[in-house]
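Subject: design request, 171 residues
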């Protein structure tokens, strides 16, 4: 059975209700909202979330599931136009054992740049060469607290990034 993270109230529902100053919207559709991730390990990294409080992939309607990928494609297009990344990574976690931290469906869209620091990011990223450490070397946790602090941007910075990406969305 998939165990969900415990969070009360849900931070995404709080954001949609206008109670989080770091909530910075890039794009919206009938079923989705695309928002800046307040942790900017990569500048521009964002999440497509469902408007409805659905916990995991297994809880989505077919229309919501289709809308998620459509919204991800739109924001990926904007991220490529704005930042010219070397790659765009998408991933999504279902349950605490897969790394889910917020019990509200979200699909990560991340522009990948050379030399960026995903040392405490998803393990498949943390071992990339030029991603904070050399492939095959164990993760040194000594800098994690400082790293977590460093990627937490001010609300004003998050809103600036969201606005910049929004300008590059396809019509
Ligand atoms: Zn929610």
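Subject: RE: design request

Done. Sequence follows.
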């Amino acid at each position: 059975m998939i165990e969900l993270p415990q969070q009360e109230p849900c931070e995404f529902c709080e954001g949609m209700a206008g109670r989080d100053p770091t909530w910075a919207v890039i794009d919206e559709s009938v079923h989705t909202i695309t928002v800046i991730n307040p942790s900017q390990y990569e500048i521009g990294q964002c999440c497509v979330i469902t408007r409805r409080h659905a916990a995991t992939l297994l809880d989505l309607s077919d229309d919501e599931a289709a809308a998620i990928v459509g919204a991800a494609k739109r924001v990926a297009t904007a991220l490529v136009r704005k930042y010219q990344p070397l790659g765009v990574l998408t991933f999504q976690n279902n349950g605490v054992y897969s790394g889910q931290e917020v019990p509200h469906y979200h699909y990560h869209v991340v522009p990948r740049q050379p030399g960026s620091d995903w040392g405490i990011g998803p393990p498949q990223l943390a071992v990339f060469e030029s991603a904070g450490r050399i492939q095959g070397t164990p993760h040194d946790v000594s800098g994690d607290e400082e790293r977590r602090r460093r990627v937490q941007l001010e609300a004003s910075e998050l809103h600036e990034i969201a606005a910049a990406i929004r300008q590059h969305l396809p019509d």
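Residues 85 and 136 are 24 Å apart (CA to CA).
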